[in-house]
Amino acid sequence: MQHEDPRNGESDHRSSKKPKLSSKFITESDIRDEFSHHHPRVARINNGSFGSCPGSVLTAQRHLQLQFLRQPDAFYFNTLRDGITASRKIIKDFINADHVDEVSLVDNATTAAAIVLQRIGRSFAEGKFQKNDTVLMLHCAFQAVKKSIQAYVTRAGGSVIEVRLPFPVNSEEEIISEFKKSIEEGKSNGRKIRLAIIDHITSMPSLVIPVKELVRICRAEGIEQVFVDAAHAIGSVKVDVKEVGADFYVSNLHKWFFCPPSVAFLYCKKSTSSSDLHHPVVSHEYGNGLPVESAWIGTRDYSSQLVVPAVLEFVNRFEGGIDGIMKRNHDEVVKMGKMLVESWGTNLGSPPEMSAAMIMVGLPSRLCLNSEEDAVTLRSHLRDRYEVEVPIFHQVSKDGEEGVRDKDGFITGYLRMGKCAKCFIRNEEAVMKVGAAFHGINICVLPSF
Amino acid sequence: MNTTSASAAATPQPFFITPAEVFSEFSHHHPSVARINNGGLGCCPSSLISSQRQIQLQWLRQPDEFFFNQLQPGMLRSRNVIKDLINADHVDEVSIVDNASTAISIVLQHMAWGFAEGKFHSGDATVMFHCAYGAVKKSVEAYFVRAGGYVIEVPLPFPVNSDDEILQEFRQALEKAKQNGRSVRLAIIDHVTFMPTVVMPVKQLVSICREAGIDHVFIDAAHGIGCVDVDMKQIGADFYTSNLHKWLFCPPSAAFLYCRKSNQSSALHHPVVTHQYGNGLATESSWIGTRDYSAQLVVPKILEFVNRFEGGIDGIKRRNHDAVVDMGEMLAKAWGTHLGCPPHMCSSMVMVGLPACLHVSSDQDSSKLRTYLRGKFGVEVSIYYRPPKDGEVGPLTGYARISYQVYNKLLLLLLWFIDISGKYLSLLQPKATTLPLSH
């Protein structure tokens, strides 16, 4: 499948959100072909972790890799920069950013977090922030983000406020209420909150967070800057950076947007401070703005960043384009989740409107999942024995609080089911496979967990 | 491959790789480009590209399984191969990163923390050669200078005739720093400078640093492995980085950063922080979020490739060096110019003086000439502008940096180059006011 050659000038990316009017959409058989490189027997319902990439995009990527190897200097001088700019323009349109200068391409959300937090660290070192100035984050923030805060904020003398999100959760109001409480608490100690880090879709447990409202609250409370970690967002929920209103917004393109590993965009709203963001790997482009710095961080393989036009062609083969994919993924994962919940007599971790393409499904209490280690063991067991790939979450019960129960006891574990259009096995089959796996695990006797 | 060192790994083979096989391994190179700039972006043979592709497909097939079961052991294997190649003591001293630029950022970020945490003081210095790579200079600006440090630049004499000329300049710079009461916290020394390219007497330079009490010595050997001899114990630096994609046939891109075990070495961190933070730089570097690690995982296969050549990587280095020096000397003779340094200070690259009538008078001229050679003659070669010094009469101001790698064919290149230079020079006769450089 030919991809758009970025050297052939801009195509009309304003139409990127609208699918081509085509009488022929991609068929199920086409989809199977596109993902024929996936392990044929594994029920791969963990798209959220590492994503997936169709064959046609991989072919386009390979073409770019060979172009580089064929004549690397010419590629560097004539193709690379324009290609990355073309990808950035597509993303800018997709996310409703004002200007392509606000869009940088980086490896992944982890890199973006390091960029934003390294700047916070510098602000402490250079005396712009005072000891104990604070960064606020959700307690279930991605582990890499937490470590990045430790590496750049805590080490530099800053402090951290964690917002404890309720789970299972019944409404957005529960989240908003906790968020407001934590800000109050932070401010009551006289601390200045320099940065709030808010997930758009949390990783574990997975929930869609009401980011627009939370960003509004941050502004009202005088929090200087807001960074939305939307690693899972693009291709999963609608992304409109102007509507969300954050200063920084990052999303991986390889999770739900069919890019090869790996590439992410970091949106930085134009402001006086955005010019002081730098890529931590410094090259001769240092000082020319983050997008330009990020487009050359030394010799490496940039093909996953160059292949975005081919991805656009792919998604537009689906009815409704990316919007159609998102809606169908959501509907199907909710359906799959409900099937399991009904079969096991458990619960969903959130109402359907707070999930996107992933949903948390309560596991039968008879599994007696009592620790993080149990969750890891169960996951490995499901992979090795039953060829089911699904992450497991251990729900820590709060002291003095009654958790959710099924007929046998408290529900302490959830699986995170992710649905992507390319799921090789149909919904019902996947559900059956998962159901059979858990039935096969002799849950009457609790073995090595 | 279970071998202990590169040279020992060159198990005698009855049949070494043939020229036809070499040609086939690099058949993806543009057939009508004379590619004599291997030092720029390196090269990768087809068999390694295939191996890399296998790894990529394994990931794509079942990424979770790959992440949990294969990635870390694979990275450890790669690190062990490198540890043996470079004669490091322990695999913990070897981290794999994308490229030398990443490595320098890691070391310099560590220095910046030194300032922030009061270990270093405003005005403490780093010393480096003036011809250090552009990205390195920028990294020094971003991390070291921004944190309050001072930069001492040592001029590199060029053309240069002996190691002593370089050592002399270095000693003088350190002496001056001492007289000015500056603490030199870090020395950044190239093993093989990139432009103009010269092999530096690193072992002696490191000794001078130790005598002068410099805290840390970092060797930027972007061109090191596969190009010159790389022996960590012999060189004795604290940090040493080299790209694997330039001269060791790795796909883009991979590099190693060696950090000698010390109290300090555990305090280095990869700037992209993950859940591995605090587990040592080597472990941190082997997971910096979801990305394609295949170029770093394919390292064990590199040994298989280089050992198909007589003498393994040492044989390749020696032959590359001899060929590029031969080529350089023939061109210098044909053009009536000279080499930028004596053969023993060349690696697999050589600086050949360009005829004065080309009037390379600025960096822009050298870029234009390079573009012109690529576009008009299909020659890929880096051009260097050497500014004249005060008092010099008729110095050469332009040099070509010629690289030689296994896929180059010496005789063909020479004939071609001489033919091109003949055509090129004839364009300038009689001397034109508008030079081809302006095209």
TrEMBL record, chain A:
Keyword ATP-binding attributed: no
Stretch list, region Disordered: 1-23
Pfam families: Aminotran_5
Residues annotated as domain Aminotransferase class V: 82-272
Record keywords: Pyridoxal phosphate
Biased composition, class Basic and acidic residues, residue ranges: 1-14
Name of the protein in its database record: Aminotransferase class V domain-containing protein
Species of the source: Hibiscus sabdariffa
UniProtKB/TrEMBL annotation, chain B:
Keywords: Pyridoxal phosphate
Organism superkingdom: Eukaryota
Keyword Secreted: no
Keyword flag Metal-binding: no
Domain Aminotransferase class V: 75-267
InterPro entries: Aminotrans_V_dom, PyrdxlP-dep_Trfase, PyrdxlP-dep_Trfase_major
PANTHER family (UniProt xref): HERCYNYLCYSTEINE SULFOXIDE LYASE, L-CYSTEINE DESULFHYDRASE
UniProt protein name: Aminotransferase class V domain-containing protein
